[in-house]
Amino acid sequence: MKIALIAHDKKKNDMINFTVAYAPILKHHTLFATGTTGFKINEATGLDIKRFQSGPLGGDQQIGALIAENDLDLVLFFRDPLTAQPHEPDVSALMRLCDVYQIPLATNVASAELFIRSLERGDLDWRKIIDERESDKK
């Protein structure tokens, strides 16, 4: 599966701790991240991560483009709900795209753990079924 990892500044340590804890699961998947988050995750875990721009510099939109192309399966976006974000319209657009394209979106550690455990059990295989149906239509 293709997984995006994004974290606001005050949530980056949560994301790093999460990826360290779940590296044995994440290493079997294709990972994408916004700039600084991806750098810090790679530094802490050694996981191979395709890095985009920083979120405020277009990274959220680059990940949104993957969603719009049906080229992403899961988004883990640790948001900071208590701090105003200058790129909030980009954040909202990314979340809207997840809803439009039926991409599971975790916005905190608790929901991300549910998704990762489901991924480990194979419960998110429905994305593969959808992808196969879309391929058959072409």
Automatic annotation (TrEMBL):
Coiled coil: none annotated. It is an enzyme of class 4 (lyase). It catalyses: dihydroxyacetone phosphate = methylglyoxal + phosphate. GO terms for biological process: methylglyoxal biosynthetic process. Its EC number is 4.2.3.3. It holds the Pfam family MGS. Transmembrane segments: none annotated. GO terms for cellular component: cytosol. Catalyzes the formation of methylglyoxal from dihydroxyacetone phosphate. NCBIfam families: MGSA (TIGR00160), PRK05234.1 (NF003559). This is Methylglyoxal synthase. The gene is mgsA.
